[in-house]
Model the fold of this input.
Amino acid sequence: MDVEGLKAIGAALSIGLGAIGPGIGIGILGAKAMEAIGRNPEATGDIRTNMILGIAFAEAVAIYALVVALIIKFV
Amino acid sequence: MLKKLLTVRNLVILLGVVALFVVSGWLGLKVPPPHVALAAEPLFHIGGFAITNALLTGWIVMLILIAAALLTTRSYPKDLATASNSELVPAGMFANFIEWVVEGMYNFSAGVAGQWVSKFFPIVMTIFLFVVTSNWLGLIPGVGSIGLFEHPEDPAMHGYVAHGVVMTAEQAHDGEGVILVPLLRPPSTDLNFTLALALSSVLLTQYWGVKALNLGYFRKFLDLSGFKQGAFMGVIMLFVGLLELVAEFAKIISFAFRLFGNIFAGEVLLAVIAFLIPFIASLPFYGLEVFVGFIQALVFMMLSLVFFTVATIGHGSEEHH
Done:
């Protein structure tokens, strides 16, 4: 197998495996936030703000994987 | 459901899309696959200083923001204290809109930052407006697709043949071909821009921490108070301080790569979808990118605001469980 093919597999594995954790995390965050809004609709604003903050942290991990994938593929 | 979609208008649109496919295949309108450049390309040099397309677009974003600010505040009276109510009414729709955005953001920031809001708001709002403008600029047709033909610097890259002003899918043989260097490139797709913003944000965090707690701010990086409760506790607190120090550097990296990764990946996604299915298919992704551009700007602003606010709160108060 040549280097280009290995690079493609490496990049795909990097983002594919790296997206699993943040995906689960964002799913849990979203579900819990919906639950909380359902219980207390008056706190929607606060819950949404904190949810977006939490999602930003969870998503950062996926972005690291993406950057690694991009570096493998294009550099 | 299906019956509702089966209107004459929708059928015409569908036929039009199919016709576009056929016509473009028949005319032989083939374009080369997109050339993805991870780094911004230099357009020209001033002295030894390379002016990249991302830097140029950054200046354009600044000009847009300055023009918007001047347009909005032009009609306001010089002395706000003695102005009558009718003079304070925003003039025109644009001024109204900007005032609505700024006021909404101010109230939101006040909820997070409390008494510090008047100090933090100008900084985080500037970050928000700068980032959201530069994110959305990349979605305007022509940004990233209009550019100059240049010979690839990497001799391994062949490049493509240009017939007049159109680049065709024929590949050139031996380093003689051309690649398109776009004139404009959204600043957020350049790591230098996001890194600069991240550094400013983290350095400002230290600044506000020192401003609020004087030199006591740095106690959280080198915490010796644990030794009062024995050597074991002291070592643990030292280690926690080390972790705090590492976290500051992790902040820089995560700020920079979050914005860069999201926006750059969005650009690549749009290009790839447009080259897989030329028509219509990119539309939903376009909408997604508009949303992502806004959310990333909001996240950058919100995280800066939260970090500023956390820095102004003494570390000691957290230990009273």
Summary: The domain at 3-74 of chain A is CATH 1.20.20.10 (F1FO ATP Synthase). Chain A touches chain B at residues 46, 49, 52-53, 56, 59-60, 63-64, 66-67, 70-71, 74-75 (CB under 8 Å). Chain A has one domain: 3-74. The two ends of chain A are 19 Å apart (CA to CA).
